[in-house]
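## retry 2 of 3
previous attempt timed out at serialization; input unchanged, resubmitting
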Amino acid sequence: MGEYQHSLDDKGRLIIPSKLREGLGEKFILTRGLDHSLFVYPLTEWSNMEEKMKTLSTTQADARAFVRMFFSGAVECEPDKQWRISIPQNLREHARINKDLYILGVSTRVEIWAKEVWEEYSSKAEESYEALAEKIVGIGL
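## retry succeeded, writing output
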């Protein structure tokens, strides 16, 4: 969990924050996320996602399209000694990442957002945060 501000280096590499490293493990999967973000999954959670995707109907065009985009953008990452990973150009384009970004710990995954995209998204989400909590989580929060 948490929110971290980082920047890509000149080679398109990103340092994974130390507080997120243990949860990700030595290898993990980076893929297209939603809302112009990237999702990072530990290998065990990636296996869970694969199992869920197998249950989707291949006769539904929406399901096929989602599965194609989700898996075709996936890459296995193995950080170097400084815990840097390279983000492929196609994923940087999907997430609109140029240099500055946010890294978010979100339960079973990590999300990577371009700074401008995250700030716009979080500003809008903040406005309806309480209403969303009541609708989704319920009173027992």
